[in-house]
Design brief:
A three-stranded antiparallel β-sheet has the order 1-2-3, with no helix packed on it. The protein has two domains: 40 residues, no CATH class; 184 residues. The chain contains eleven helices and three strands. By secondary structure, the chain is mostly helical.
Length: 230
């Protein structure tokens, strides 16, 4: 809107600079108002901060599993085999059917890589880098589906193990007590690891990922990452 007085029109700069007026030349008021508006555009919205915090929290919790398996995986396997022997069956019956409670170096690299990627994305989003926002919108849906499925199988490990035994077609496996084996393995691990850490990982991979997607798609987050094309 323009205000005209005696043929001279004065145009307000806008709501961010309600006191500044432009008379056809650049003024200090114009410069300070532009700096104020720029500062407001560069302020990180709480939606982005929360999304990045969830990504960093997931990374911190997710990396616990491979570390525990490195130090306690062999003990978990030994506990499972001891339970099998206690039930009157050969100790190697599980490994003969590729049932292991340890992970090889190759498989352990996957959770470490996911931890690194989540950490990098969280830091990029905190720094306001558009590439972090774009990659997050691709990565988080994949984490929601794939990560939720894999970690969900760990949450319901005893039930899935029992289902696998009963549908294996092997006379020995059918007679094994899957719940007792799963309990023996969990007791060989640190008491805080299962089920508490597993539940936390599952919640962050599913509900956490969904919340990150929603937060990064809010108007404030979109505007923040679109500024200056960064």
């Amino acid at each position: 809107m323009k205000n005209c007085y005696a043929g001279v029109c004065i145009r307000p700069l806008g709501p961010a600079c309600s006191r500044g007026y432009k008379l056809g030349m650049y003024s200090k008021t114009d410069q300070s108002c532009a700096e104020t508006a720029g500062a407001r555009r560069n302020t990180r919205p709480q939606t982005v901060t929360l999304a990045a915090a969830l990504q960093l929290l997931f990374a911190a919790v997710f990396v616990i599993a491979p570390i525990v398996l490195i130090f306690y995986g062999a003990e978990g396997q030994a506990a499972a085999e001891a339970e099998v022997v206690r039930e009157g069956f050969p100790a190697d019956v599980l490994t003969r059917h590729n049932i292991r409670f340890t992970e090889g170096p190759g498989l352990l690299m996957i959770p470490f890589a996911m931890t690194l990627l989540s950490t990098v994305l969280g830091l990029l989003n905190l720094a306001g880098k558009r590439v972090g926002w774009m990659v997050s919108l691709v990565y988080e849906p994949l984490l929601l589906i794939v990560g939720g499925f894999i970690i969900g199988s760990q949450v319901f490990a005893a039930q899935l193990l029992d289902h696998a035994f009963k549908n294996s077609g092997d006379v020995t496996l059918v007679r094994l007590n899957a719940k007792a084996i799963a309990t023996a393995v969990s007791k060989a691990w640190p008491p805080w690891f299962y089920p508490y850490t597993t539940y936390a990982r599952f919640a962050l991979a599913t509900l956490g990922s969904l919340l990150v997607i929603i937060l990064l798609l809010t108007p404030s987050a979109k505007a923040y990452f679109r500024r200056d094309g960064r």
